[in-house]
Amino acid sequence: MPYVPEDVPEDSSAIDPAWLNAALGSRHPGVRVAGVEAVDREELTNHHCRLRVEYDESANCPDTMFCKLLPRDSPAREAVAATGMGLREARFYESMAMEIGLRVPTPYVARCDPKSGAFVLLLEDLKATGAGISDGLTTVDPDAAARALEDLAALHVRFSSSERRAAEAGWVAAPMYQPGYGSAMLKAGLDEYPERLSADFASLARLYIDGPEALHALWQEGPKTVIHGDPHIGNLFDPVPNPGMRTGFLDWGIISTGTPLRDVSYFMNLSLSIEDRRANEEALLRHYLDIWNSGSEFPLSFDEAWRSHRIHAAYCVLACCQIVSFPSGQSEARRVFSEAFLARSEAAISDLDSLSALVESGID
Q1: Burial 314-337 (b: 16+ CB within 10 A, else e)
Q2: Helix, strand, or coil (residue 104)
Q3: Hey, is 52 helix, strand or coil?
Q4: Which SS3 state, helix, strand or coil, does residue 47 take?
Q5: In 141-153, which positions are buried (b, 16+ CB within 10 angstroms) versus exposed (e)?
Q6: Model-level pTM?
Q7: Domains plus CATH for the chain?
């Protein structure tokens, strides 16, 4: 897919037949777009909508596409652009998505402008194709989790060599640490809603607020590879058990280089039910290590991996920084998702005694 940084629409209303025809043409020669309509617009972290498309000649393009761009209004637009998440996700779909073997939404258009941070993604409309997306309560069952960890392991092994990362994924960088991100929201949650947060969660939140740099450095320890960075239940599709169906991975805006245990721990803690994680996490971790150790030049013992799993459980606190403000205006669906997310985070932190793992690693 050609990289065209200068031609990114400002918002979905600027996507007209002429623009869409040109954008689709590189992957679908001969396409002729007759009309396009943006529907179901939503302002979440980014601007989302669905495009309904009419063709004189479809060239195997779909009738609907999921569209993702920067938020339309300031200051959210500038804030999200500054994170670079849209740029990274566009680069992923432009250059890597169809090569790595993971199940991801089919990309039709991926463009970005590094100068402004603007981007546009036109992807498979998962609702139209019948893919299941979790409401936060639906989780990945242990068998499906094992298959998903196999797929993650294949990604991690592929890029465990620094030479291959440089050759095939040189644009993927270490996670961007934003000083102050999360701390203010966590402090507000602790101050305003202490009764709604577990004691272990609160202790870890205070630890993060007091010393985020040390925690981010610890989370970067270990062998390096390309990681998804954010594989919780909301960034997966088809989590419902379905024989032969592989879990798909969404939202690649935090793709980075880091320890593979970041993905493994985050996935187990925030994609399985609390009960399934407790009953299966050791077996699932061993299953993952069998694949990692068979293909990587940097083998990990179970004890090393288990320690890392406990340490990375602490990241659940930062992952919940927006949730702990308990916004009153959120939709019922968002409230249900957030409460389930927080419950899984608190359980993982407590079960794995993540605070002790950090103290044992020199964080206090």
Answers
A1: bbbbbbbbebbbbeeeeeeeeeeb
A2: coil
A3: strand
A4: strand
A5: bbebbebbbebbb
A6: 0.93
A7: 12-124 (3.30.200), 142-360 (3.90.1200)
170 in Cβ contact with 159 (< 8 Å): no
Place of tokens 């409460």: 339
Between CA 317 and CA 182 the distance in angstroms is 9
The amino acid present at 31, given as its one-letter code, is: V
Query: Which residues of the chain form beta strands (DSSP E)?
Result: 32-43, 47-57, 64-69, 107-113, 118-124, 225-227, 236-237, 248-249, 256-258
DSSP type of residue 14: G
Preceding omega of 75 cis (within 30 degrees of 0): yes
Six-digit token string for 132: 């299941």
Q: What is the pLDDT of residues 203-213, one digit of tens each?
A: 999 999 999 99
CA–CA separation, 166 and 86 (whole Å): 21
| Spatial CA neighbour of 101 closest among 58, 145, 148 | 148
Query: How far is CA 196 from its chain centroid?
Result: 26
Amino acid at 310: R
8 Å CB contact between 65 and 53: yes
Per DSSP, the three-state class of 63 is: coil
Distance CA 92, CA 75 (A): 26
Measured from the Cβ of residue 70, the count of other Cβ atoms closer than 10 Å reads 24
User: Mind listing the pLDDT tens digit for each residue in 55-112?
Assistant: 999 999 999 999 999 998 888 889 888 889 999 999 999 999 999 999 999 999 999 9
